[in-house]
Write a structure and sequence with these properties.
By secondary structure, the protein is mainly alpha-helical. It is built from 15 helices and eight strands. The protein has a two-stranded antiparallel ribbon with strand order 1-6. A two-stranded antiparallel sheet has the order 2-3. The chain is globular. The protein starts with 25 loop residues before the first strand and ends in a 41-residue tail after the last strand.
């Protein structure tokens, strides 16, 4: 399927006049091969469709009179509907729980253990919070399930999963994915009003997603939460990904409803992508832009040269083709680094709103390291010693720094988990393969593309540095 950049599909809503069979969400991803099944599921299609809806809505709009309307954070140009305001109240109630879980003052190595109390309180109050802040008719939508399950049972699973792990004291992109699913589930349940394309989506981004991200950052700083499954210095961001997609859309060229989604260029008044390396520019732009807001949080919690602690973002800052090119890459990278990664999606639960059933229109994706980096089922053959060791890859495959397993004198080649994934070609000295451009396609799924694309290289290390921290794509 090739729609040449147009993302005009909309996540379908349930017919409220027809009884729906709700199902208690459950875990279905247990090993690496299950990720491939997920990538052709209805759940994957729905998640990517909704994300692409939100993404397109944040591009500046070219009005009939030729002027351009942008969508900065806290703009008066976006009016919030009653459901959006109800969700804002829900976020305030979640924030209030911090008062019920004061910090533990004892010694600790990682996150503050009081976050476990915070999470426990959240779980205990989840049903009451949803009933207080969401319409009764939405939560109690008729169900044909003989067990009497309602929409609340499915919404509650994604809501609780949105706030990190009380057990591991961490937060990451899997929890962010759960909140995206929570909002998409409300959309499917007709929880948001009908409107012109992009209108309610913008309200969801600026009125709900942005306050959610700010609340998550408050929780991370308050309880010193660890990154969940982080690649460390080799990842895009320790905790979040979605603000980089939506924030780059905010700075891309203006479009009309009928325009193709642009793949290059920037809004005329957009800051240069290289501005992420300058603290004063980040401080200025973070007040109005989701991308810079996410980078600003990195400045809040990390010290040292930007190129050293955030080499992927530093490399992206050298893109000369504009914010639309960055946005295009971020969408592809989200597919590759979040939805195709076993450590991220293994905890995602599947019910009726996000179904494990195969999407009949899905295209089987090629096998990649992203989908096979989790635990694999052991073959049902006798153990023959050394030969069986090769049938099951290491659980941390694809997450090690590139020098971790190389022998003395070995030549390090770029690996998938350390390069931005939107280069159109791949060349490692052995092959040069042209890859299909799928960054604007609705699912699914978009096959991850892995190739060195370094637009910007890190400054040279000091002369006494052995080079072990140099970004692997630097040339």
């Amino acid at each position: 399927m090739n729609i040449e950049g147009r993302s005009n599909r909309v996540l379908l809503k349930l017919d409220p006049s027809v009884s729906h069979k709700f199902i208690a969400p459950r875990k279905n991803i247990y090993e690496g091969k299950d990720v491939a099944t997920f990538l052709v599921s209805k759940a994957y299609t729905d998640i990517m469709t909704f994300l692409l809806q939100l993404n397109r809505s944040m591009f500046p709009e070219r009005l009939p009179n030729g002027s351009v309307q942008t969508w900065p954070i806290h703009t008066d140009a976006v009016q919030f509907s009653a459901p959006v305001r109800q969700l804002q109240r829900l976020l305030l109630r979640v924030e209030d729980i911090i008062q019920d879980a004061p910090l533990d003052t004892g010694p600790r190595r990682f996150g503050n253990i009081s976050f476990r109390k915070w999470h426990e309180v959240l779980e205990n109050r989840a049903s009451d919070l949803l009933k207080e802040c969401l319409p009764q008719e939405l939560l109690e939508m008729p169900s044909s399930n003989p067990d009497g399950l309602t929409a609340e049972s499915e919404l509650k699973a994604y809501f609780i999963g949105s706030w990190g792990s009380g057990q591991r004291l961490d937060y990451g992109t899997g929890h962010e994915l759960s909140f995206l699913a929570f909002l998409a589930a409300i959309w499917k349940l007709n929880g948001f009003p009908m409107s012109e394309p992009g209108v309610e989506e913008r309200a969801i981004v600026l009125g709900v997603l942005e306050p959610y991200l700010e609340l998550v950052r408050l929780l991370i700083k308050t309880y010193t939460l660890e990154p969940a499954g982080s690649h460390g210095v080799w990842g895009l961001d320790d905790h979040s990904f979605i603000p980089y997609i939506l924030g780059s859309a905010q700075l891309s060229p203006a479009i009309t409803e009928s325009d193709l989604t642009p793949e290059e260029g920037s809004f005329a008044e957009a800051p240069d992508p290289a501005g992420v390396t300058k603290a004063n520019i980040v401080e200025r732009e973070r007040k109005s832009n989701l991308y810079f807001s996410a980078v600003g949080f990195i400045y809040d919690v990390k010290r040292g040269p930007f190129w050293e602690h955030s080499p992927m973002l530093y490399d992206i800052s050298g893109i000369s083709a504009g914010w639309a090119k960055i946005n295009k890459g971020m969408v592809k990278m989200y597919n590759a680094e979040v939805l195709s990664k076993f450590p991220v999606v293994q905890h995602f639960p599947f019910g009726s709103l996000f179904s494990w059933e195969r999407d009949p229109n899905a295209i089987v994706p090629p096998t990649t390291v992203h989908a096979t980096s989790g635990p694999q089922a052991r073959p049902l053959v006798p153990d023959t010693g050394a030969s069986s060791a090769t049938t099951r890859p290491s659980m941390d495959a694809g997450t090690k720094a590139p020098w971790a397993t190389a022998g003395p004198g070995a030549r390090i080649l770029p690996i998938g988990s350390t390069t931005a994934p939107w280069a159109a070609t791949r060349s490692n000295g052995l092959s040069n393969t042209t890859l299909p451009d799928t960054s604007r396609l609705p699912p699914g799924p978009m096959a991850p593309t892995r190739a060195p694309w370094g637009a910007r290289t890190a400054p040279p290390p000091p002369s006494d540095d052995l080079g072990s921290t140099k970004a692997p794509w630097a040339k």
